[in-house]
TrEMBL record:
InterPro entries: RNA_pol_sigma_70_r1_1 (IPR007127), RNA_pol_sigma_70_r1_1_sf (IPR042189)
Domain RNA polymerase sigma factor 70 region 1.1 as annotated: residue spans: 43-96
Record's protein name: RNA polymerase sigma factor 70 region 1.1 domain-containing protein
Recorded GO MF terms: DNA binding; sigma factor activity
Pfam families to which the protein is assigned, alphabetical: Sigma70_r1_1
Length: 99
């Protein structure tokens, strides 16, 4: 029985390590810093937050997002940060009419 328990413990340690590795990037990026973003991305976020507040809405459209984005190529990391920060404020971006 000792070998069986050792094998189980080793498998569990591997599984625990894999889970920790899988969660680590998401956890470390969970709260992107508004201040660490490029100035034009910060302005876009501020514009989106102001629009949602003015509309008293928790939902913006992809058209709203496109209008707020700077006229340069925006990286996937910038977009991810925008979505995270909006989500922290309870705002979603969806297709269709803002509501």
């Amino acid at each position: 029985m000792g070998k069986r328990n050792d094998a189980h413990a080793k498998r569990q340690a591997i599984i625990d390590g894999m889970l920790a590795d899988a969660l680590r990037p998401a956890y470390s990026y969970r709260l992107p810093s508004h201040d660490a973003l490029a100035a034009d991305i910060r302005r876009a976020i501020d514009e989106l937050l102001a629009k949602a507040e003015a509309q008293r809405s928790r939902c913006l459209t992809y058209e709203d997002l496109e209008e707020a984005l700077p006229p340069r190529d925006v990286s996937a990391e910038d977009l991810e940060a925008i979505f995270w920060i909006l989500a922290e404020h309870g705002i979603e971006v969806e297709d269709g009419e803002a509501g």
